[in-house]
Amino acid sequence: MDARSNAAPVIIKRKKIVAGGGHHGGAWKVAYADFVTAMMAFFLLMWLLGATTEKQRKGIADYFNPTVTVNRVSGGGSGAFGGDSVFSEQSLAQSGTGASRLHSTESRQARGDLGVANTGAEEDEVTFAEVSEALRARSGESLASDEILRHIVTRVTDEGLIIEISDLDGAPLFQGEGAEPTALLRDIAELVTSVVGLVRNDLAIAAHTRARPVILVDNPVWDLSAARANRMRLLLEEAGARPARMRRVTGHADRAPVVANPMDLRNNRVEVIVLRSG
User: Fold this and answer.
1) Of 63, 152, 209, 251, whose CB is crowded by the most CB atoms within 10 A?
2) Whole-number mean pLDDT of the chain?
């Protein structure tokens, strides 16, 4: 027998190592990076809102607004390609150089302005500030300036600059429960006409009344507010405002009170609105 047959056999044991989890890719890293970026932008926005003034925030917002206006309607010429003149009152949309009506008002006429048209929002803000400042300055020239200023409040809305003129205790704008103006309202109308004459924007007139008791069978608030709005229009035109500037005259009855008590005298008011140019 071979001597090598008595040797112990050699056993080789191979241990299989299993890697934990395997390779999952890097998609989670991209999602995490987007999340961190969004959170950073959010906290930066919160910081800006708390650390800036209203005027600074408006400046930041204006920075991201486009400054070149693109009009859907383009002008043409009288040459070989036909079309209308760029100064046509009949064909151009309201874009700063053209007009939107055949018989347009002065503030909407095509004036032949050259250059890039702007949105006009900035011009409106300057216009409204000019009217408000002139209103305060010119009321100071009157002997009844304190009495007049007590009745007038101005505010800027999406529609335009609202000059609100309201009743006060012992100082009504109209005589009794009718539409005949008092001497006070006539003075206020002359003042308002003088300041809105500084700008070319169109005007709108609105009148509101205080509520009446619900037991009334014939509630006059609708007819009364409409009559007062129209009377205010006539006062402005008598003081020198051009009729072509009047775009709207409305009566709102008692549907939009400015104080909690709907029967309060302050709800008797007339609004002269300097409309936005756009």
Assistant:
1) 209
2) 79
Q: Is pLDDT at 79 greater than 70 in this prediction? A: no
What gap in Å lies between CA 155 and CA 138, rounded to an integer? Answer: 18
Quote the number of domains for the chain.
Answer: 2
CA–CA distance from 205 to each of 17, 240, 271 (Å)?
A: 88, 15, 6
Percentage helix, strand, coil for the chain under 3-state DSSP, each rounded to 5: 35, 15, 50
Let me know: does 209 contact 253? Beta carbons within 8 Å: yes
Whether 23 has a pLDDT exceeding 80, the answer reads no
Tell me, yes or no, whether 96 and 130 share the same domain.
no
Query: Hey, what are 21's tokens?
Result: 């989890």
The CATH number of residue 207's host domain is 3.30.1330.60
Residue with tokens 């609708």: 222
Structure tokens of 225?
Answer: 């507010």
Q: Which of 115, 133, 165 is the last residue of a domain?
A: 115
* Residue 214 lies in domain: 121-275
**Whole-angstrom distance, CA of residue 146 vs CA of residue 108:** 36
Q: Are residues 163 and 179 in the same domain?
A: yes
DSSP 8-class letter at 170: T
**Same domain assignment for residues 132 and 255:** yes
pTM for the full predicted model: 0.58
Q: Is residue 204 part of a domain?
A: yes
The string of pLDDT tens digits covering residues 172-190 is 999 998 999 999 999 999 9
